[in-house]
């Protein structure tokens, strides 16, 4: 789903933002290379962000480069292992300039993940820690990159998801034309495992800009994951509203079933099916609870 | 001339070499020198021999092939360069799936200056882009590797491969034409039988030389992942092809079947941490091959030990230097190329920053390490960000195994003399392309005051990368592929 989101976002004209991001990353990378004062944890975070972004980009390609994916995934694993060891040794200390727990990084809510990360000037308010402001422009620019850029935020999301998972590798490697029958689902495998975790992350998607156009959803692979997401923001032109209002239980089910065929279309990616599936679930829940 | 015994591990700062294990299988005892090294190198190459310190090459520009345009067409980017066994033919493959073969001109007393020039001999389309409908993927036509077969008759044979399919091409000459057929006339039209009053014997008449390339075998559908290497066996009957996770053994005559000899694919792809990056057969022992990995290790396998060579006979790995550890340590340790020496006693590996020479008798560290562009070590994050860190550089030996060559950025390439320990950086550029002009050594300034003629690290053009180079099997002639141009340099004494 994250893949679908990213694809949608790029398609919606956020390529300009991505190129800004790339410029920022290039600036940050040279800062990494040239600065001796950059704290180790910040460097590590930067590398991790870059790795996750690359992996995310590779996921979008039909046939990602296996060699590169493996190298990057190993780097991510290595960094995560290091972070885990550190966090197991030290208590989480938000005000520590070398905050080992990535969840305590400024801009990342420990309760969930918020995309609207504070800008450089507000960072002090977000975690009430003065030490960050003393880090200087490089660290601020890192925040500003994270602030505006969805790729970096997605990276944070993936990273947090991994921590919730606690064991599995950061990404499933999509093999190029794997011959095992289960492998085409390997990308979906990880997503399905993350379904529970996405509940914690669902507020993220609330802040994504959704345009009124419904065509984008045709590109998305609609699957069960959407059940967890509150999609009331989707503005649909299709006349399914009656299903959303409470009704007498007995007739409701029949009506629901009757209404579906009319709104149904053959394409599984069509919006009506999405909405009606969700509405059906809501409705069934009401029925079950009501009875 | 026998190759010199290896010097003590130079840059690695190691001590003496490990003793050869008693009772070791005979093949890894020092071998008598291969035919290449027996040749009197001093006579042929004028100073390229394995003896003494007289290895001061003076490289001169010889030729450059390719468009001068600043605008480089993607299809013209050269993706592989390979001399044949005699060195008379030089093949290049490009991203557009084409193969261009150059032939060395014979010495001509009337035109002494064109001695040894390479001119186009044959051009053909080896691979076309394909579409895999089942997986909805496009298969690139880019030629990943070309390997020549040893010449056995008048025709020349080579193997060329893209990501998925290997093809055996026959390149043959036709310089005679038969004339005077009885049943058909010169146009090919059938003659009216009633008009034939006498029989004649067709005679062969000379014609303009025509070089024809025809595909003789197509080895397809054996690789799920992208083919990175092919290597012809010393038995001249079989060859191997390697992709990211598997290595297959083929017989040159048989296209509908191949044997899988290495398979490192884990049962669960999520456990994958290592891929195969290159593979090569031993030049003399037809049962031995090596393959390198993305973790910087090399495994040597003996096909006599088992059908599936998942267990290696030897495992080469250098312990990591903890002082140079960084986030990118694993990525830069990934080996991009592995090449046996002509003698078969050593092998060379190329990783992102260095070239290492290994003695096959010593697994725990290389005997020599050469830094290609150590100044990039402090730029690794930027190089990771722009993906340059994944560039796969190749390396090659000279005929006598006394020197090695590899490419770098900014169209620089590096040559190392193993005996004198001297190295030189040269540039493949149009500016230094006057005929027989001696190439000026280049130097990269790493910091502080930049001397005249030096170039600073930040001014390097990372889009101009020399990934593919080849050294003539006996003479001091080198071919360097710079994006869409092929440069040929010769040693002045030549």
TrEMBL record, chain A:
Any one Gene Ontology cellular component term annotated for this protein: nucleus
Domain SERTA: 40-87
InterPro entries noted in UniProt: E2F-SERTA_domain_protein (IPR052262), SERTA_dom (IPR009263)
Entry protein name: SERTA domain-containing protein 2-like
Organism listed in the record: Chelydra serpentina
TrEMBL record, chain B:
Keywords: Repeat, WD repeat
SMART domains, A to Z: WD40
SUPFAM superfamilies in UniProt: WD40 repeat-like
Tagged with keyword Magnesium: no
Any single Gene Ontology cellular-component annotation: protein phosphatase type 2A complex
PANTHER family: PROTEIN PHOSPHATASE PP2A REGULATORY SUBUNIT B
Gene3D superfamilies found in the cross-reference section: YVTN repeat-like/Quinoprotein amine dehydrogenase (2.130.10.10)
Keyword Repeat: yes
Protein name: Serine/threonine-protein phosphatase 2A 55 kDa regulatory subunit B
Family: Belongs to the phosphatase 2A regulatory subunit B family.
Gene Ontology molecular function: protein phosphatase regulator activity
Transmembrane domains' residue ranges: none
């Amino acid at each position: 789903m994250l893949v679908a989101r990213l694809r949608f976002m790029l398609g919606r004209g956020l390529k300009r933002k991505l190129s800004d991001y790339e410029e920022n990353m290039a600036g940050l990378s040279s800062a990494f290379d040239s600065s001796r004062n950059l704290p180790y944890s910040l460097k590590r975070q930067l590398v991790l962000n870059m790795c996750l972004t690359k992996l995310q980009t590779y996921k979008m390609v039909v046939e990602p480069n296996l060699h590169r994916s493996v190298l990057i995934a190993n780097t991510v694993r290595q960094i995560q292992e290091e972070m885990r060891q550190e966090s197991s040794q030290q208590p989480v200390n938000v005000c520590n300039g070398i905050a080992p727990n990535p969840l305590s990084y400024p801009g990342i809510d420990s309760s969930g993940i918020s995309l609207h990360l504070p800008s450089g000037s507000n960072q002090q308010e977000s975690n009430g820690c003065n030490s960050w402001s003393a880090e200087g422009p490089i660290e601020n620019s890192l925040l500003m990159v994270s602030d505006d850029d969805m790729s970096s935020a997605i990276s944070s999301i993936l990273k947090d998801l991994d921590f919730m998972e606690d064991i599995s590798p950061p990404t499933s490697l999509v093999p190029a034309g794997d011959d095992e029958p289960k492998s085409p689902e390997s990308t979906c495998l990880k997503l399905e495992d993350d379904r529970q975790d996405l509940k914690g992350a669902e507020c993220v998607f609330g802040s994504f800009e959704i345009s009124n156009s419904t065509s984008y959803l045709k590109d998305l692979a609609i699957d069960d994951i959407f059940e967890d997401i509150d999609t009331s923001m989707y503005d649909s032109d299709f006349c399914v509203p009656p299903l959303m209002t409470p009704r007498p239980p007995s007739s409701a089910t029949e009506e629901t079933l009757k209404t579906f065929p009319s709104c149904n279309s053959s394409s599984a990616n069509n919006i009506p099916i999405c909405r009606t599936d969700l509405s059906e679930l809501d409705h069934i829940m009401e029925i079950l609870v009501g009875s | 001339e026998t190759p010199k015994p290896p010097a003590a591990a130079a840059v690695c700062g190691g001590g003496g070499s490990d003793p050869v294990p008693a009772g070791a299988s005979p093949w890894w005892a020092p071998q008598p020198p291969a035919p290449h090294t027996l040749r009197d190198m001093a006579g042929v190459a004028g100073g390229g021999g394995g003896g003494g310190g007289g290895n001061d090459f003076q490289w001169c520009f010889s030729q450059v092939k390719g468009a001068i345009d600043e605008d480089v067409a993607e299809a013209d980017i050269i993706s592989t360069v390979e001399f044949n066994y005699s060195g008379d033919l030089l093949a290049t493959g490009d991203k557009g799936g084409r193969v261009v073969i150059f032939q060395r001109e014979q010495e001509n007393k009337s035109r002494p200056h064109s001695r040894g020039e390479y001119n186009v001999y044959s051009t053909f389309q080896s691979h076309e882009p394909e579409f895999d409908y089942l997986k909805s993927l496009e298969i690139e036509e880019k030629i990943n590797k070309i390997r020549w077969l040893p010449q056995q008759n008048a025709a020349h044979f080579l193997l060329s491969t893209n990501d998925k399919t290997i093809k055996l091409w026959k390149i043959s000459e036709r310089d005679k034409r038969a004339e005077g057929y009885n049943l058909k006339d010169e146009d090919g039209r059938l003659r009216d039988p009633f008009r034939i009053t006498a029989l004649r014997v067709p005679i062969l008449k000379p014609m303009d030389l025509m070089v024809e390339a025809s595909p003789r075998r197509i080895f397809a559908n054996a690789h799920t992942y992208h083919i990175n290497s092919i290597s012809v066996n010393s038995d001249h009957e079989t060859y191997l092809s390697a992709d990211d996770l598997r290595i297959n053994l083929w017989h040159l005559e048989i296209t509908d079947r191949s044997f899988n000899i290495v398979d490192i694919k884990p049962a669960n792809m999520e456990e994958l941490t290592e891929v195969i990056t290159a593979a090569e057969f031993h030049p003399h022992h037809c049962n031995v091959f090596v393959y390198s990995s993305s973790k910087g290790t090399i495994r040597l396998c003996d096909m006599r030990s088992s059908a599936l060579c998942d267990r290696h006979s030897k495992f080469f790995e250098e312990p990591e230097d903890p002082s140079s550890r960084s986030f990118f340590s694993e990525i830069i340790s990934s080996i991009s190329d592995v090449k046996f020496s002509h003698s078969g006693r050593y092998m060379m590996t190329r990783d992102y920053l260095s070239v290492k020479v290994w003695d096959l008798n010593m697994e725990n560290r290389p005997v020599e390490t050469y830094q290609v562009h150590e100044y990039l070590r402090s730029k690794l994050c930027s190089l990771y960000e722009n993906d340059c860190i994944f560039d796969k550089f190749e390396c090659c030996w000279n005929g006598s195994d006394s020197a090695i060559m590899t490419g770098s950025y900014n169209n620089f390439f590096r040559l190392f003399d193993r005996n004198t320990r001297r190295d030189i950086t040269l540039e493949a550029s149009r500016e230094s392309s006057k005929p027989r002009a001696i190439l000026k050594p280049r130097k990269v300034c790493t910091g502080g005051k930049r001397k005249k003629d030096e170039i600073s690290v930040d001014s390097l053009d990372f889009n101009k990368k020399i990934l593919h180079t080849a050294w003539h099997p006996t003479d001091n002639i080198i071919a360097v592929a710079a994006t869409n141009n092929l440069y040929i340099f010769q040693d002045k004494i030549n």
